[in-house]
Amino acid sequence: MKRRVRWIACSAALVLGASAFWQGLQVTRDCVYSDKVSRIVRFAVVTDLHSTWYGEAQSGLIDAITREDPDAVLLAGDIVDDERPRDAAKAFLQAVTQKYPTYCVLGNHEFRTPDPEEVKDWTRNLGVTVLDGTGETVTLNDQTVRICGVDDPACGTLSWQSQFDTVCRMAQDTDTYTILLSHRPERTNEYTNSPFDLVVSGHAHGGQVRIPLLLPGGLIAPGQGLFPAYTSGLHELEGTTLLVSRGLCRNGIPRVFNRPELVIIDVTPKNAYTGT
């Protein structure tokens, strides 16, 4: 009997350990509602790739995006890693831009490279719209939306604030659904009561170590410290909604109960929620 109990306990520990460190890609689907849209607009959100490979020519990640059939792809920073070759990042960008309109901002790791402006240049050359205090009004699925973005604050405090003020002015048209790409989720003081309908961020890596029930938001995140508040999912702030992706990096510090994540977000007409 004791041997059987030990066998069961060991088996359970092995399964739990395997689950804790499993790095398979997870697709998370979220939805936000607005009376500023009359048709659903679907976005795939990719953050914190950190030059990670997902199969040959990034086929694992590209196939996952394709199955979701988004109208556009949003990249919220750290697609490139400053300590790893850029081949994986370039392979992903080359593949995704052949299929979808793609918009991006730079994260802190792109700003750690020797020349962030050079990163922007070759990213643009691959067909990505790079947003750095700029915005684009586009039509996706016959619906007009505005996509704005700012560099990571590593560009400099004054530069970041100037970019943020500029895109805030762009978003004053309250009739157009407006998204802000901004790498860091912890800057909630700036996002609160801003004119953006949705802020899309990454950076927190899901809090790195997540323990169900005990640490659902993770153990630690850059810029937030221990027991961070903004590491994944949707967060309702005053006047806007913050979406945080856990990101896709699996190159460095182990992720615990924290699988890499592709986020799919549907911007949906409000009457679809109310039933009117």
Spatial gap, N to C terminus: 62 Å
Could you name the CATH class? Alpha Beta
Order of helices and strands: HEEHEHEHEEEHEHEEEEEEH
Q: Which fold name fills CATH's third level, the topology?
A: Purple Acid Phosphatase, chain A, domain 2
Q: For the largest sheet, list the strands in their spatial order.
A: 1-14-2-3-4-5
Tally of individual helices: 7
* Mean pLDDT figure: 91
**Which architecture per CATH?**
4-Layer Sandwich
Q: CATH homologous superfamily - what is it?
A: Metallo-dependent phosphatases
Biggest β-sheet, characterized?
Answer: 6 strands, mixed
Structural class: alpha/beta
Number of domains: 1
Envelope shape = globular
Strand content: 25-35%
Low-confidence stretches: 4-18
Q: In angstroms, what is the radius of gyration? A: 19 Å
Helix percent reads 25-40%
Number of strand segments = 14
Give keywords:
6-stranded mixed beta sheet, alpha/beta, 276 residues, Purple Acid Phosphatase, chain A, domain 2
Characterise the protein shown here.
This protein has one domain: Metallo-dependent phosphatases (Purple Acid Phosphatase, chain A, domain 2, 4-Layer Sandwich). The chain is built from seven helices and 14 strands. The chain has a six-stranded mixed β-sheet. A six-stranded mixed β-sheet has the order 6-7-8-9-13-12. The chain has a two-stranded antiparallel sheet with strand order 10-11. With 276 residues, the chain is α/β, with parallel strands linked by helices. Strand 4 (102-104), helix 4 and strand 5 form a beta-alpha-beta unit. It is globular. The chain has helices at 2-21, 59-68, 87-97, 116-125, 157-170, 188-191, 270-274, and strands at 26-34, 41-46, 72-75, 102-104, 129-130, 134-140, 143-149, 177-181, 198-201, 220-221, 225-226, 233-237, 240-244, 261-269. The longest helix is centred in the first third of the chain and has 20 residues, at 2-21.
